[in-house]
Amino acid sequence: MTSAVSSASCPRCGDTNVQPVPVRRSGTAAPEPVRHGAPGTAPIAQCVCARCGCRWTPRSPEERHLRALSGQLGEGAARAAQAEDAARARREARRARLPKVPARTWFIAATMAAVILLALLT
pLDDT: is 119 or 39 the higher one? Predict the structure, then answer.
């Protein structure tokens, strides 16, 4: 494993001074360091760039996206990654503008509409 990491380069800055860090498999954005002794938790190696501090999992979609953004995969891939980031930002902004309506409010509104319709039709 060390030979694969030592020949790796940072997807953000291109530096080859990359250190492997074992982390627990998890769906969190910032994985926690592995605490040995927990049964059934096989750690994976996450790479950390010593120059810029970028963290990524080798051979993952996030690494490919970072390489595309930095221009390491060509101009077309960089434009596509920038467009993808812009679309994601627009979706998140749209979600932030619209307040989430609780299910209880929808239930009350539907009940009131039904009562009003019954009153009008009888």
Answer: 119
Please write the tens of the pLDDT for every residue from 74-92.
999 999 999 999 999 998 8
- DSSP-derived 3-state class of residue 66: helix
Confidence at residue 3, expressed as pLDDT on a 0 to 100 scale: 40
Q: How far apart are CA 35 and CA 43, in angstroms?
A: 9
Confidence check: pLDDT of 36 > 60? no
Question: CA–CA separation, 81 vs 87, rounded Å?
Answer: 10
Element spanning 50, H or E: none
Q: How is the beta sheet containing 44-49 ordered, strand by strand?
A: 18-23, 44-49, 55-56
| C-alpha span between 82 and 77 (Å, rounded) | 9
Tell whether the torsion through CA atoms of 9, 10, 16 and 18 is positive or negative.
Answer: negative
Q: Are 41 and 48 in contact (CB under 8 A)?
A: no
